[in-house]
Amino acid sequence: MAKLELQNLNKTYTSKIIPVKDVSLTVDDNEFLTLLGPSGCGKSTTLRMIAGLEEPTRGRIFLGDEDITFKQPGDRNMAMVFQSYALYPHMSVYENLASGLKLKKTPRTEIEQRVTEVSKLLGLEELLQRKPGQLSGGQRQRVAVGRALVRRAQVYLLDEPLSNLDALLRERVRADIKQIFAAQKAPVVYVTHDQTEAMTLSTKVAVLNDGLIQQLDPPERIYNQPANLFVAGFVGSPQMNLLTLPCKGRSAILGDANILLPDIPTVPPEIILGIRPENVRIAQPDDRQVIQGQVYLVENLGMHNLVSVRVATAETEPLTIRALLPPEQKWNNEEIRLALPPQNIHWFDVKSGDALK
Ligand SMILES: Nc1ncnc2c1ncn2[C@@H]1O[C@H](COP(=O)(O)OP(=O)(O)OP(=O)(O)O)[C@@H](O)[C@H]1O
């Protein structure tokens, strides 16, 4: 198996539409890379260039040592799973699974053997004679994945394969995808705008916005050390609190609290403090930096309450902090004292949006 490498990949449609800007990354044969980002950020265009369905305007694509930038899709030995499943409606599941191999003139016995193997793996044995129209969404998606697997490709590409499934089924198929592709030992590139899929499936995540990679890291790092405001705000649900605060001396001012700034060479007039709702907690008597506020909304999420707290400030409009708090605590519109543990605070530059180390 070989490593997939994108070098400074660009796609330009017009001077206004540049969906992919200078994307460089590598995916090793035991890696599952997810391209994660909002609609229109260039995920699918990147994937389509890897597949050969779209020509890059600039940049190179390598598979191992071979430059495949302009190779025909059929000559790339890559298998792609589409969001729309792309099954042949008039063919049975068996024929759908076998069709790619038949085109390649694979011997019949080998086709039978591979289709049997894959249908066992995906639990499709009972469905082989049915047509796609007689399958549920989840079953169709399994057939689409099966079509890619029978190919025994060098690289697997998946474009939002779970987006047509309901929430429950999505969780099940997601777990299947994780197990199945981990066993393939080939580079996998997966496209999604769903951060849960990215976090649960991937060994590496490339967060894209406006055609640019914002951060390329393992999921834990993306979550715990977001490189900039975009990643901090896009990854995590409920979203990270991001508060623009004035600075005074070596502190940022939040309501009555002075929050010690990180060790930065020059203190700017304003700074952005980020903290995830799950890291905000009720203040204890020995907490030093305590934020006082007023509860104005409580949303029951089952495992937690998402409590929105308004904090009065001297210079600006009141700020809102959201905290995930235990469900046994009931809150009305009352005063609350919150602590922001220093180790969970992220700092960002107001101008560039970059994380401050
Ligand atoms: N053939 C095309 N001609 C002109 N613009 C295009 C073309 N294909 C895509 N685009 C534009 O390129 C940008 C990126 O599109 P792309 O499909 O890669 O985004 P995406 O991140 O996959 O979005 P989604 O999640 O909505 O599929 C979008 O602004 C889109 O409108």
Automatic annotation (TrEMBL):
<keyword id="KW-1278">Translocase</keyword>
<dbReference type="InterPro" id="IPR027417">
    <property type="entry name" value="P-loop_NTPase"/>
</dbReference>
<keyword id="KW-0067">ATP-binding</keyword>
<dbReference type="InterPro" id="IPR003439">
    <property type="entry name" value="ABC_transporter-like_ATP-bd"/>
</dbReference>
<dbReference type="GO" id="GO:0055052">
    <property type="term" value="C:ATP-binding cassette (ABC) transporter complex, substrate-binding subunit-containing"/>
</dbReference>
<dbReference type="GO" id="GO:0140359">
    <property type="term" value="F:ABC-type transporter activity"/>
</dbReference>
<dbReference type="GO" id="GO:0005524">
    <property type="term" value="F:ATP binding"/>
</dbReference>
<dbReference type="InterPro" id="IPR047641">
    <property type="entry name" value="ABC_transpr_MalK/UgpC-like"/>
</dbReference>
<dbReference type="InterPro" id="IPR012340">
    <property type="entry name" value="NA-bd_OB-fold"/>
</dbReference>
<keyword id="KW-1003">Cell membrane</keyword>
<feature type="domain" description="ABC transporter">
    <location>
        <begin position="4"/>
        <end position="235"/>
    </location>
</feature>
<dbReference type="Pfam" id="PF00005">
    <property type="entry name" value="ABC_tran"/>
</dbReference>
<protein>
    <submittedName>
        <fullName>Sugar ABC transporter ATP-binding protein</fullName>
    </submittedName>
</protein>
<dbReference type="GO" id="GO:0008643">
    <property type="term" value="P:carbohydrate transport"/>
</dbReference>
<dbReference type="InterPro" id="IPR008995">
    <property type="entry name" value="Mo/tungstate-bd_C_term_dom"/>
</dbReference>
<dbReference type="Pfam" id="PF08402">
    <property type="entry name" value="TOBE_2"/>
</dbReference>
<dbReference type="InterPro" id="IPR017871">
    <property type="entry name" value="ABC_transporter-like_CS"/>
</dbReference>
<keyword id="KW-0547">Nucleotide-binding</keyword>
<dbReference type="GO" id="GO:0016887">
    <property type="term" value="F:ATP hydrolysis activity"/>
</dbReference>
<dbReference type="InterPro" id="IPR003593">
    <property type="entry name" value="AAA+_ATPase"/>
</dbReference>
<keyword id="KW-0813">Transport</keyword>
<dbReference type="InterPro" id="IPR015855">
    <property type="entry name" value="ABC_transpr_MalK-like"/>
</dbReference>
<dbReference type="InterPro" id="IPR013611">
    <property type="entry name" value="Transp-assoc_OB_typ2"/>
</dbReference>
<keyword id="KW-0472">Membrane</keyword>
